[in-house]
């Protein structure tokens, strides 16, 4: 039935006036561009990644024209079996390099690998025997057979009528090897969507999985590599050209060289650029959800390519958006994971989305990223900024939040892959892919950091997580160690150690210098703690520092005593030894995660998972621990 349909449609197209066919192709292509949002977005996204310097109108024009030419190609492919040879010679002309290659073939030159790309009118390449007066010799073309045997037989018959042999990808490799051993020519398609069977390379600086078969054959048979490509002159008018690829004979050099040749061709003119099939997702092979956060393929040519292109590092052309948590402590705990993400996907450009005040923190701690999107207040402007992100065409969106708002933000960007954690009884329909927390996961005994790690590893994050502090603490140079105190807790009053206990702690060290930190909301508590102490003993900085200044002064502390707060986590990230006071909250879930020293103190009888009042934590318990830490800091003779 399929064969009958192909023959009927093909015959009709072959006998339809070209003026009508041109109108049909233009109309169908424009309609698909307008109505197929997914195909349109793929084309525009590909063009945005490949040509970030070009404006949106140019990309839309190229994308629309590419779809029209795809239709033109399809119509000609269906009609060509029913078009007389004389008319085919009128449609296609031999161009630069074609005759020279065929003459060389007749002189028994050397084995030739003829590579082609998905430019419009690519099937005209099978007409070479018709277009040239020189015989094409022993020539085979590797192709992907159709599932329908009768339709496949019809395709083989029509494509082989001018002297080429079609060699099935399933069964024809032995024949291809035989042709090359006899110094013949084998043609095959090379593209950048070879999946796990291809080699990691780049096209337009963006990591892809390229077909390495041309390189394998060229290396095995020391074959020359030529590239054939059709150049569209007008509707159903094409010129076949052939270029010779200069290469060293290795598979790596051929594979990388073909991609570089293709880049040069598509950037040489807008017309050639518009003939490539931009609506096909050529870079999609590195977006499989289970391995999305790492690079994976059969072979890796990225180091070779970086040397060949003189790159110090891979271009960052994969756009990953990360929605940060809403609390300072949680943001700090994500930093080792973001650092590892940079290692696992070295080609990723990170866009961080979070509260405006965290931007300075990320910058000061030196975490590399490309863009920071500060959250606006809830409202229309907030939604608009995520709609604007649509035109950056993000490739993946990682959510450390568990809110409906965060999921809506991600959906508004148009990002196709949106990853988050789905907890039991917590439905998140706006996620495209979710890590389902195991039903036996005990939230009270498992750290939040462990859950986030499993979340990212389930989508491919590779390598051990490095929890080394982001910087070394800056010593003051004074003979007396500097002790920092964080006496408040903005989001939960129950997490505060009582003011009298803080005062007892300070009184126990009359010769010690203390820095008291806090937000403007902690100012009242800090004032009570500092009341009556000399300013050279206790310096009250609560509410007086920006986040950057807070980091700067905190970095000068030798040890910090703190409630369960974001500042506690920040000190830990800076490598400062921390004495953390936990009462009602659970240190098994929220204790600091960096490898700097952390001492967790809880009230007597408090379960490891928390739940006791900090009123029960005696001052002398903290005094004794702080005295031990200060003694350890003293210089040894």
β-strand percent reads: 15-25%
What is the number of domains?
4
Average predicted local confidence, pLDDT: 90
Main sheet: strand order: 1-9-8-2-5-3-4
Number of distinct beta strands? 22
DSSP helix fraction: 40-55%
Oligomerization state: single chain
Terminal CA distance: 94 Å
Put simply, the count of helices is: 24
Radius of gyration: 33 Å
As residue ranges, the low-confidence spans are none
Overall structural class, as computed from helix and strand content, comes to alpha/beta
Largest sheet, in brief, is:
7 strands, mixed
Keywords for this structure?
alpha/beta; 22 strands; 637 residues; 4 domains; 24 helices; Rossmann fold; 7-stranded mixed sheet
Task: Describe what this molecule looks like in 3D.
The chain has 637 residues and is an alpha/beta fold. The chain folds into four domains: 2-83, no CATH class; 86-275, no CATH class; 318-458, Glycogen Phosphorylase B (Rossmann fold, 3-Layer(aba) Sandwich), CATH 3.40.50; 482-633, 3-Layer(aba) Sandwich (Rossmann fold). The strands form four sheets. It has a seven-stranded mixed beta sheet. A six-stranded parallel beta sheet has the order 13-12-11-14-15-16, sandwiched between helices. The protein has a six-stranded parallel beta sheet with strand order 19-18-17-20-21-22, sandwiched between helices.
Task: Describe, in short, the structure shown.
The chain is 41% helix and 17% strand.
Chain-wise SSE layout:
Layout: H1 2-14, H2 18-35, H3 37-50, H4 56-79, H5 85-91, E1 92-94, H6 98-106, E2 112-116, H7 128-131, E3 139-143, H8 149-159, E4 165-168, H9 173-181, E5 185-189, E6 199-203, E7 206-210, H10 213-221, E8 224-234, E9 237-245, H11 251-268, H12 270-275, E10 299-300, H13 302-309, E11 318-323, H14 328-344, E12 348-354, H15 358-365, E13 371-374, H16 380-389, E14 396-399, H17 404-412, E15 418-422, E16 433-436, H18 448-458, E17 482-486, H19 499-507, E18 513-517, H20 523-530, E19 538-540, H21 547-555, E20 559-563, H22 566-573, E21 578-581, H23 587-590, E22 598-601, H24 619-633
Parallel strand pairs: 1-9, 2-5, 2-8, 3-4, 3-5, 6-10, 11-12, 11-14, 12-13, 14-15, 15-16, 17-18, 17-20, 18-19, 20-21, 21-22
Antiparallel strand pairs: 6-7, 8-9
């Amino acid at each position: 039935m399929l064969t009958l349909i192909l023959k009927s449609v093909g015959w009709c197209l072959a006998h339809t006036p070209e003026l009508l066919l041109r109108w049909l192709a233009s109309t169908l292509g424009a309609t698909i561009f307008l109505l197929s949002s997914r195909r349109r977005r793929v084309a525009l996204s590909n063009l945005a990644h490949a040509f970030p310097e070009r404006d949106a109108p140019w990309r839309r024009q190229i994308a629309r024209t590419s779809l029209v030419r795809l239709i033109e190609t399809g119509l000609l492919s269906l009609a060509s079996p029913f078009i007389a040879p004389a008319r085919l010679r009128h449609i296609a002309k031999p161009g630069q390099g074609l005759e020279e290659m065929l003459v060389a073939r007749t002189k028994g030159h050397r084995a030739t690998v003829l590579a082609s790309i998905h430019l419009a009118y690519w099937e005209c390449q099978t007409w070479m025997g018709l277009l040239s007066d020189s015989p094409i010799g022993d020539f085979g073309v590797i192709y992907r057979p159709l599932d329908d045997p009768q339709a496949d037989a019809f395709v083989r018959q029509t494509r082989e009528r001018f002297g080429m042999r079609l060699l099935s990808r399933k069964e024809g490799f032995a024949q291809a090897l035989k042709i090359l051993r006899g110094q013949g020519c084998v043609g095959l398609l090379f593209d950048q969507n070879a999946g796990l069977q291809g080699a990691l390379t780049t096209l337009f600086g963006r990591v892809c999985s390229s077909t390495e078969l041309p390189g394998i054959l060229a290396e095995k048979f020391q074959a020359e590599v030529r590239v054939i490509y059709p150049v569209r002159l007008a509707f159903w008018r094409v010129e076949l050209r052939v270029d010779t690829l200069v290469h060293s004979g290795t598979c790596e050099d051929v594979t990388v060289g073909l991609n570089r040749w293709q880049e040069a061709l598509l950037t040489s003119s807008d017309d050639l650029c518009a003939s490539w099939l931009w609506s096909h997702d050529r870079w999609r092979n590195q977006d499989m959800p289970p391995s999305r956060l790492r690079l994976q393929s059969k072979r890796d040519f990225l180091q070779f390519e970086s040397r060949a292109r003189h790159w110090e590092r891979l271009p960052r052309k994969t756009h990953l958006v990360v929605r940060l948590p809403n609390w300072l402590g949680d943001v700090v705990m994500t930093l080792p994971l973001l650092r590892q993400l940079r290692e696992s996907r070295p080609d990723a450009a990170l866009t961080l989305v979070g509260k405006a005040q965290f931007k300075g923190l990320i910058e000061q701690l030196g975490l590399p990223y490309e863009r920071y999107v500060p959250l606006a207040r809830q409202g229309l402007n907030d939604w608009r900024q995520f709609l604007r992100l649509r035109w950056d065409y993000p490739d993946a969106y990682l959510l450390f939040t568990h809110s409906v708002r965060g999921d809506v933000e991600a959906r508004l960007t148009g990002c196709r892959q949106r990853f988050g954690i789905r907890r039991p009884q917590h439905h998140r329909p706006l996620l495209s892919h979710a890590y389902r927390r195991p039903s036996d996961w005990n939230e009270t005994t498992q750290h939040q950091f462990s859950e986030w790690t499993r979340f990212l590893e389930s989508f491919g994050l590779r390598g051990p997580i490095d929890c080394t502090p982001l910087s070394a603490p800056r010593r003051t140079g004074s003979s007396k160690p500097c002790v920092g105190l964080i006496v408040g807790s903005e989001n939960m009053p129950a997490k505060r150690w009582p003011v009298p206990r803080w005062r007892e702690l300070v009184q126990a060290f009359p010769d010690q210098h203390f820095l008291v930190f806090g937000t403007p909301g902690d100012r009242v508590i800090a004032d009570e703690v500092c009341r009556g102490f000399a300013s050279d003993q206790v310096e009250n900085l609560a509410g007086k520092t920006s986040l950057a200044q807070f980091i700067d002064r905190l970095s000068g502390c030798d040890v910090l005593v703190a409630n369960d707060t974001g500042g506690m986590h920040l000190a830990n990230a800076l490598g400062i030894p921390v004495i953390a006071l936990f009462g009602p909250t659970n240190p098994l879930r929220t204790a600091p995660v960096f490898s700097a020293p952390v001492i967790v103190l809880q009230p007597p009888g408090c379960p490891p998972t928390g739940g006791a009042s900090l009123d029960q934590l005696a001052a002398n318990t903290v005094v004794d621990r702080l005295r031990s830490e200060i003694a350890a800091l003293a210089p040894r003779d």
